[in-house]
Amino acid sequence: MTRQRLYLYDTTLRDGQQTQGVQFSAAEKAEIAQMLDRLGVDYIEGGWPGANPTDSDFFAQAPATRATMTAFGMTKRAGRSADNDDVLAAVMNAGTPAVCLVGKTHPFHVREALGIPLEENLDNIRASVAHLVAQGREALFDAEHFFDGHDEDADYALACLRAALEAGARWIVLCDTNGGTLPERVGQVTRAVIAAGIPGDRLGIHCHDDTGNAVACTLAAVDAGARQVQGTLNGLGERCGNASLTSLIPTLLLKEPYRSALETGVTAEGLAGLTRISRRLDEILNRPPARPAPYVGASAFAHKAGLHASAILKNPATYEHVDPATVGNERIIPMSNQAGQSNLRARLAEAGIGVGRDDPALARILDLVKAREDAGYAYDGAQASFELLALAELGRMQHYFTVERYRVTVERRKNALGKRISVSEAVVVVQIGGERMLSVSESMDAEGHDRGPVNALWRALAKDLGPYQAAIDDMHLVDFRVRITGGGTEAATRVIIDSADGQGHRWSTVGVSPNIVDASFEALVDAIRWKLVRDRVVPA
């Protein structure tokens, strides 16, 4: 059977930038655009030229991409010609091969927001799209509030689509702008649009996630015949976000009926880089990745229950709907005080640690995990620390270095400008192969801001590890989580640190202490030791 082409349109750099707390720099937008291009999307919507300096700067130096770079704007304003609208001119001046213009299709919005007659809105749509086409641009019409408009006045909503189509628009995009339409209704309306004469191979879908159904609504439109899907990486977007391409892309490539019926520009190689792209975006945003995110989350292929882990050992398909490697993710068998020996053996096997079924060390490791979790540790979220614990109990842990002592000071003072600042300084002394090494570091960044005592400790610890320095130079910390366990005089602090390296590996370590700095230092030391073990570094 001949597969139909489905086009992927990414709006991370425009709609995704409307996420609360998100603001990309022009350089970050360029990096994200290149990631999207490697992934294999067909269109990259870079932003709204003229709306803000960052978007204008991005388009002035936009990277060359195989994907069609697209500028976003709005249809011409009332009382102006398309040739004489400065807002539309700014969009055109970006020089992109494609332009997406948003226009009203809901009579309520035409009357209340624009304050113009319905027929004048249709004229504005026609004139704006025709202006794009006359300038040799591929035109997309973003039919704002279409599903709400169709419910109020289907004839007028469809008239708006026809006005854009007849003026030469390549794509008509149905937008569930408020995110309140449910999947069944999206499917019904999309079929009605196609039946009314808008071809499915010129129809797109753009959904928001205000009911948690953006991905399902997008698939419903595809089922009905739409052949362009719009969304964002990690579901970024205004309010509750947009349809997540991070979920949609693997579903379209790996799940029936889409896998057999549709073809996209994403290859198997591109799909295998999806998890890395997703997590890199979160690094740019300086936020922790969503652990339960479908396909790419750290918990997406985690099997905590003993029954599940036992079955996974025999055949991963028992509790996994796809192979984690197809999306660049990995299987995790977490350890916790609920674990049994099936979990333990599965987790050790995943880590490349072979242990016989009857090895008495298995029981000792389980007892140790349960005792330490009773003291506040949590190994289901810190796999690297668990592996180090198991290796030590099995007598297989390599000895790399000993921390002789450390000290952290925090000082509050006035700087040379008379401004009151805080400064953290750390001293770490380690022994490596009989040699004693001392490192000192403070926590000031390039802008002169204090990054705190844990940052100072990390910089001192990773500053000079002698023969191991080359192995840890590409390490960096990506997340830091603190939890107070217990209460009163028995309270302890649990710190979990996520680390990553230049090869795209990511791991988590845990530390527990009544002192938050001490707990952090324990997790930092574990992070370095696990990387040395993982990279098979030979002890000095």
Automatic annotation (TrEMBL):
- Which EC numbers does the record give? 2.3.3.21
Q: Which InterPro entries match?
A: 2-isopropylmalate_synth_dimer, AIPM/Hcit_synth_CS, Aldolase_TIM, Citramal_synthase, LeuA/HCS_post-cat, LeuA_allosteric_dom_sf, PYR_CT
Key word Amino-acid biosynthesis present: yes
Q: Which enzyme type, at the first EC level?
A: transferase
Its UniProt pathway annotation is: Amino-acid biosynthesis; L-isoleucine biosynthesis; 2-oxobutanoate from pyruvate: step 1/3
Which keywords fit this entry according to its UniProt record? Amino-acid biosynthesis, Branched-chain amino acid biosynthesis, Isoleucine biosynthesis, Transferase
For this chain's UniProt record, which GO biological process terms are given? Answer: isoleucine biosynthetic process; L-leucine biosynthetic process
- Residues forming the Pyruvate carboxyltransferase domain are 6-272
Can the keyword Amino-acid biosynthesis be found in this entry's annotation?
Answer: yes
* Substrates-to-products reaction catalysed: pyruvate + acetyl-CoA + H2O = (3R)-citramalate + CoA + H(+)
For molecular function, the Gene Ontology terms on record are: (R)-citramalate synthase activity; 2-isopropylmalate synthase activity
Q: Which family does it belong to?
A: Belongs to the alpha-IPM synthase/homocitrate synthase family.
Q: What is this protein called?
A: Citramalate synthase
